[in-house]
Amino acid sequence: xxxxxxxxxxxxxxxxxxxxxxxxxxxxxxxxxxxxxxxxxxxxxxxxxxxxxxxxxxxxxxxxxxxxxxxxxxxxxxxxxxxxxxxxxxxxxxxxxxxxxxxxxxxxxxxxxxxxxxxxxxxxxxxxxxxxxxxxxxxxxxxxxxxxxxxxxxxxxxxxxxxxxxxxxxxxxxxxxxxxxxxxxxxxxx
Length: 190
What we know:
Order of helices and strands: HEEEEHEEEEHH
Strand content: 25-35%
Oligomer: single chain
């Protein structure tokens, strides 16, 4: 029984370590946050280059109550972002005030989401306690598309790279654990 205990403990450690890394390694800048009332995740990425057209920052925060998307970007990207927003949200709940485009979805007197586009920023706020899961999931997926357009990244490629990296780390940890088990077996025999 003693001989089975250590390999089982190592296997459980490796399994939990692998899954923990897999769920939190979608980007180097992801941080988990929690408060007394709810748990959530936040994601922030900033691109700062010599060319102002390539500079951007995107922040996504999720918890049980809200979904927040904040982005700053060069004004040259505003046209493509506006087109994406009009395609997704439509024109029925759009209000235009000069250079500010704002989509507010209200049902039964309750605000479900609010999206505001200016010449160099975008803010989307979803009230999860009022919006149904279909709206929340739609805007969450749309936030990933917007992040990729604004930052010039590809989330699917990043996820594949992160998964490969996590797999290699887990394989190294497993090999190390196997070596440790063999060492302990040798020690127990002596």
